[in-house]
Amino acid sequence: MMLRKTLTTIAVSTLASRPISAVMLPVRKHSIPIFMLHRPSDPKLGVSGHSQQFISEALNFVKKSGYTAISLRKLVNSAVNGDPLPKMSICFTMDDGFSDQAEKILPIFEEYQVPITFFLATDMLDRQYWSWDFQLDYVISRTSLKQLNAIIAGKPFKSTLGNPTDRRNLIRKVRSHLKTKGIDVSRREVLHIANVLCVDIPKTAPASFTPMSWDQARELESDFVEFGPHSCEHSILTQLDGDQAKREIEHSWQRLKDELTNPTPIFCYPTGREGMDFTERDKILVKNSELTAAVSADPGYANLNSSDLDLYALKRFSFPMNDLTQFKQYCSWIERAKEIITGRI
């Protein structure tokens, strides 16, 4: 396993080198990777995520390897107006609106002068709200019990909770199950899980889920840091009726316009899997809300020369979890070539 990983690292580093990437440029010339970041790692608070050192290494690679980081606004304007982009463009985004993201991640992007669009769930900033999916994460991560055996929204779940991997796997499984239910069911079932696991859910977000403030956002807004709407309550739109979904989209955008100087008119779907977390209904609602585009969480490139590019479901790659080889693969032509060869285009 170690030998295979080493060989992969060598192969990717070679193929993604500046000279070879220049030759292979036509493979991804019009295909822009949009990266999606979430939380910075903080073991003291039990938060798993990106290390600040790795983010710095990745941005250093971007700068030294001839890539040009552009804002998401610039990418969308290019798609709409045909404005030319640099040959090796890449784009960065970050979701949610936690204070640790503002304090530990955004300054790194400003240090390297790399643009990033930060999507805010505005009720987090307005009233310290934290949604059921974040509460679920808190409950399963904080319980002192070593196993869960419960019926959750009609489905039996039995799992050990002996280590962080077990807990993360359970969080993903329960979250995926609850996303198929109505939002009232999801909220009720998280309270049920908390009762089973003997965890009290705070009314306002605890330290590990502290939201940023509007003052922080205003201070950070710059040529390199832009803010866009990510709904109000971080609600999964398919769990809502049409009027509720419309409010989540329109009110979050209005709050950014009220509080900030130049918010970007691009929406970010909570969770963001097309067909599961948002549908054609929701894309139409976004389009009718003065918003010029929207991003999903489905992996892939934004293929600007494609006739079927959907500006209201732009794909994004998850920013690799401390894996520079994977990051190089997405930045370069390698992953795009794999898409073409396997038909994932």
Brief description of this entry?
The protein has 16 helices and twelve strands. With 345 residues, it is of the alpha/beta class. Helix 5 links the parallel strand 3 and strand 4.
Draw up the topology in text.
Elements: H1 2-15, H2 18-23, H3 25-28, E1 31-32, E2 34-37, H4 52-64, E3 68-70, H5 72-81, E4 89-96, H6 99-104, H7 106-111, E5 116-120, H8 122-127, H9 132-142, E6 147-152, E7 155-160, H10 164-178, H11 183-196, H12 214-220, E8 225-229, H13 242-259, E9 266-268, H14 280-287, E10 293-295, E11 302-303, E12 317-318, H15 324-331, H16 334-342
Parallel strand pairs: 2-4, 2-12, 3-4, 4-5, 5-8, 9-10
Antiparallel strand pairs: 1-11, 6-7
Helix pairs in contact: 1-15, 4-15, 9-10, 9-11, 13-14
Instruction: Give the number of helices.
Output: 16
Our estimate of the beta-strand percent is 5-15%
Q: What is the annotated CATH architecture of the largest domain?
A: Alpha-Beta Barrel
The Rg value, from CA coordinates, equals: 20 Å
Q: What percent of the residues sit in helical stretches (DSSP H or I)?
A: 40-55%
Write the CATH homologous superfamily of the largest domain.
Glycoside hydrolase/deacetylase
Total of domains: 2
